[in-house]
Design goal:
Layout: H1 11-26, E1 61-66, E2 72-76, H2 102-115, E3 119-127, E4 133-142, E5 150-156, H3 159-170, H4 176-187, E6 193-199, H5 200-204, E7 218-224, E8 261-263, H6 266-273, H7 276-282, E9 289-298, E10 308-318, H8 325-361, E11 371-378, E12 388-397, E13 401-412, H9 414-432, H10 437-451, H11 454-459, E14 462-475, E15 480-486, E16 492-494, E17 500-502, E18 523-527, E19 532-537, H12 549-561, H13 569-580, E20 590-597, E21 605-610, H14 616-630, H15 635-655, E22 660-667, E23 670-677, H16 697-704, E24 707-712, E25 717-724
Antiparallel strand pairs: 1-2, 1-5, 3-4, 4-5, 6-7, 6-10, 8-9, 9-10, 11-20, 12-13, 13-14, 14-15, 15-18, 16-17, 16-19, 19-20, 21-22, 22-23, 23-25, 24-25
Amino acid sequence: MDPTPSSSSGPPFDRVSGALADYIRRAGTAEAPGTAVPQSDPRARRPAGDGAEAGGQEQILGVVDLNPNLRITSFNLTAAPFAGVRVAAGTAFAELLPPEDVPTVTQRLRNVLETQEAHVARVQRLRRDDGTELVVSMSILPAAAPQGGLTVSLIAMAKRLHLYASAAAIGTSLDIGETARSLAQSLLAWGDVAAVDFDFAVWTGEAVTEQAHDRIRLRRAALAPDRAWPEGYVTCGDNLPRGASRLLVGAVMRDDAPQAVVLTDGEAIARALGDPRLVRALVPGGLRANVACIPLVVEGPEGTSGPVVLGVTEVWRRQERPFRDSELFDRQELVAKTARHVDLARRHQREHAQVLALQRRLLPRTSSDTIEVATVYQPTTPDSAGVGGDWVNSFPLPGDRTALVVGDVIGHGLGAAAAMGQLSMEARALLSAGLGPGEVLERLDETVTLLDDTDAGLAAGYSALGSTCCIAVYDPVDHRVVMSNAGHLPPVLVRPDGSAATVTAQPHPGLGAEFAVREPFDVHEFTAPPGSLLALYTDGLVEDPVASIDDGISRLKDVVREVHPWDDLQQAARRVVAGLAPQGRLRDDVTLLLARMTGRHSRDTATWQLPARDDTPARARALAASLLRRWRTGDRTRDDAGLVISELVTNAVLFGAGPVTLRLVRAGRRLTCEVGDTGNSRPRLRRGDVLDEEGRGLLVVHKLTTRWGVRWTDTGKAVWAELDLPRVR
């Protein structure tokens, strides 16, 4: 069927043709359709592309008329670029479109029908019979009365317009794979098959260095069109054979600039590759082809002698369609622009990987026999500004205690991660040195104020000022948690009876908040019976654009309550995040720490409170010796422990104040002795002279224990020491 396109003589077609007249004149072609331009006319030029007609004009206009049911009534798609676009009267316009574009375009067509307002100059794709796609600029015009319906004008995008659109589309993503796919799809305008291959270092984000071109290792990043390929042909994700880099030889530096290498027939391709296996791997199956290869090249780092190769692009097409110089110039321009985007994406991926490695490095790795910890960190998508400043940490403290820490530095990127890492490490060091949660936050507050460079931080996308942090210290013997909060969201505690509540402390604006009235950090203490579950998290887990933060915390309480006591905690943490975090692109990093507190069994601990008298050291030794015999420790361990306890209790009586508290904890092969008093003097280790009669007690403790230290309590201090227990035979 060869219908006579009535729209060609109708007013809509004339209106669109008239609108294109200026474009055609500016392109240097004939002023009227079908009028040839004499080749001797110096003003004339032949536009690049397959649509160039014998007369020198690039015909690019087509029109399709639709009835109110969006079915084709007539059409005019005789211009050369529309070859292969199957169209017939009576069929639906949607049959011309890729399936994924049908809903959007259909909605646009219906909107023009309803409003009678034109929809102009929208970039669109049309399907060809061979599986390729034609890029057009589509305008939708309401048809004049009385016939009604629509007139759709289709302008086959000239090569320069296609070049501009492709470059704009490729530059919108920092994802290396997406950039490669966009480039391959754009290169199809010049051929039948397009491939993009990247150097290994581009994938890993490593620094790409100058190297011999025949030694570059390549991996296929994109291949278009997407179809079934014969076995042995290199497809996406496959590593190219080592000899494949021969396509780059002679292309990287020719006249001091990267140039295209064009192989015009199968024999030339076979000679260049030199191996039948390479031919099967690289030449599209069954295609008597010629190929144009253009490398992706960027300027090398300062101090290098030449450009650095990121990869190579290949466009294959049938041998009877040789490449023209004008096409190669356009391709080189597009590839050069893409190379800069690829290098930017590579740098972004390297920074993303570095920040993510730092973030993962700070996640807790192990649990203990008194507390089980599970963490989930879910960063924002790779094409965002990068990984953020969320952090959680869990680590053992002296005296069998465990620290749980969560914090958030405002912003994303390497600067936020560096600030986060500094605060995390300082918090760990201060807690391990014996400071309480409130005292640690006081020090972190000073650190944030000192380290923050507001202007530089904001320019880099982060600010340490206003960082939040929550610290909780769990004591498995007393089953109590001491917590202090600097502007962070309150933890959620689920007790063994299934009740869930937020643990709130006196509110504080956050770290480095100099603008606020300076207030001390409140210290809150609460019980956590064995089997309790504590959830610490960052705001990305509970924030929702359409709900309040209180609603998000309420949902978190409901979800955490569903965690069963014998559920695998890591899997439970993932279920909590999956149930609360939004699907798809995240607005912020999501961080969750779940801690299941089992406590220390009473048979492994003992605590005595003794008066501060001269006979207290002897009494403490006797109590400890009796307990250690029940624990079946060896004679040497009992002797060493008795001597350590005697020295610590003696110091507490002599230099401390008030009652003396002695606590022994057996944890595996470790024995912890802790002596507390109400004094605030810090014992210090020193080497005494030969004739000194005092000051040797701590030196004895140092020699007999694996480690010892001091921690500060609400009522004074506690000196602790750890000894190794021998294996029980």
